[in-house]
Amino acid sequence: MIPLAALRPLAGGYWRAPPLRFQSKPYGTQNRHPHIYNIRKRMTNESQGEHRRQGRIEVICGSMFSGKTEELIRRMKRAKIARQQVEIFKPAIDTRYSDEDVVSHDHTSIPSTPVDSSAAILLFSEGMDVVGIDEAQFFDNGIVDVCNNLANNGVRVIVAGLDMDYKGVPFGPMPALMAVADDVMKVHAICVRCGSLAYVSHRIVDVDKRVLLGETGEYEPLCRECYQKALSGRDAQASAR
Ligand SMILES: [Zn+2]
User: Fold this and answer.
1) Residue 39: CB partners within 8 Å, gap ≥ 6?
2) Domain at 53-188: CATH code
3) From ligand 1's centre to the CA of 225, what distance in Å?
4) Low-confidence ranges of the chain (pLDDT < 70)
């Protein structure tokens, strides 16, 4: 029992927790450091291994060169080691390096199936424990229902994609996927101008098309501040012309 005198009302009418020395056992077991709890929880998730989990949606998002695909491949490989049935899908549009493989910028790869619509993913996912989807930003909006459908049927769905396009606008179905996901991980590249965490892929070449498949040379990861500077520099150049 907490002695009543130990509970002191605050100005807002809320009761403040008593100082530690007044706590009786049950109260003391309450978590006073939620950040430590979250770290612990994350470690537990990882240490649970890769046995068959409940259906869920995991989203890995970030700018270009942030390691999204590497993280997707890492999770898929672990599931494979656990002898789960896994399959990666990618939009047929993404044929940067190889038609059949999901290849990341550091050239680790895993076999994959190119599909031209989100509906095809459902067709090919029969009997899968884990379904990976790479470059999800290029899929149609039907991908949200497809992921929900799979997860509701016990499949672990891992989605990787660009959160924003080169103008900093949320990309395709990614915002909706993040909303319905059980878990979202935002990964970051390093700003090539100052070394901070990057948040956007700045397009260096002067093309106004939204879908321009990226490689080093066409895009540079920039932090918010350097991105603003780059934009104002470009405006100044344009008005000088
Ligand atoms: Zn920067």
Assistant:
1) none
2) 3.40.50.300
3) 6
4) 1-48, 51-53, 94-109, 207-217, 241
Q: What is the pTM of this model?
A: 0.73
Q: Which residues are catalytic?
A: 135
Query: What are all long-range contacts of 20-24, with beta carbons under 8 Å and residues at least 24 apart?
Result: none
Number of Cβ within 10 Å of residue 121's Cβ equals 23
- DSSP codes, 46-109: HHT-SS----EEEEEEESTTSSHHHHHHHHHHHHHHTT--EEEEEETT--SS-SSEEE-TT--E
Amino acid letter at 55? G
- pLDDT tens string 148-182: 999 999 999 999 999 999 899 999 999 999 999 99
Å from CA of 195 to ligand 1 middle: 6
| Ligand 1 centre distance from Cα of residue 43 (Å) | 31
